[in-house]
Amino acid sequence: MSIQTQKKNMQTIHGLISQDLGYISGERESGPNGAKKVFHTKSAAFLRALAKDLDFKEFKVTNNHAGIAVSGEITLMGMWGDGNGLYFQLNQPIQPFNSFLYRHITNMKDYSSGRNQWLDCSIFADGDYEELIDTMLKLRNTSAETGGMRHAA
Question: For position 134, what pLDDT does the model report?
Fold first, then answer.
C-alpha cells in the first residue's frame, strides 16, 4: 500500500476506535459486526502493509474478535532476524489510557519477554505514518544495540 493509503487507514482506524465497537447487534451477537468487523478488516490490512514497510523477514497478523462488549484485538508479530522483533497490538483502548501496546520480541512465539510500551492513539488520528515507522524502527535499532532489551522512554 502507498503511504497515503496507510495514512488514510490510520485515520479510519482511529475513527473506528472512537466509537463503541462492542455493541450488541448485527449479524452475530459474539462476533464481528458492523464497525467492529470493519475495524478488524481494516486493521489487519494496515498491519500487513506495515510489516512489509518495516522490512520484516517473517511476520504474522492475527485477529481475536473476542466477545460482546469489547473490540477484540489485531496483533502483528514480526521478526527482523536474529532474535530481534516486534509485537504490536491494535484494540479499542480503555479510557483514559488511549494507547496501543507494542514491545520487543525474540521469536514468533514470544508472548511475554520485552517491556510493554505504549503508543498514543493520537498518532493514528493525525495519520502520521512516518512517525509510526520511525517509532518502530527505533525499537529495532535499540533492541539490536542492547542485545534485545529496550527501556521504556
Answer: 94
Q: Give the structural domain span for 10.
A: 3-145
Count Cβ atoms below 10 Å from residue 9 Cβ, excluding itself. 21
Determine, yes or no, domain membership for 91: yes
Tell me whether residue 87 is in a domain.
yes
pLDDT tens for each residue of 70-124: 888 999 999 998 889 999 999 988 776 789 999 999 999 998 888 999 999 999 9
The pLDDT, as a whole number, for residue 96 is 66
Cα–Cα dist 144/139, whole Å: 8
| Torsion angle (degrees, nearest 10) of CA 133, 116, 98, 153 | -70
142 burial via Cβ count (<10 Å: 0-12, 13-18, 19+): middle
Q: Is residue 152 part of a domain?
A: no
Tell whether 151 is covered by a domain.
no
> Which residue is listed with cell 488514510?
8
Q: Beta strand pairing status for 117-120 and 58-64? A: unpaired
Largest Cα–Cα distance in the chain? 49
State the total domains in the chain.
1
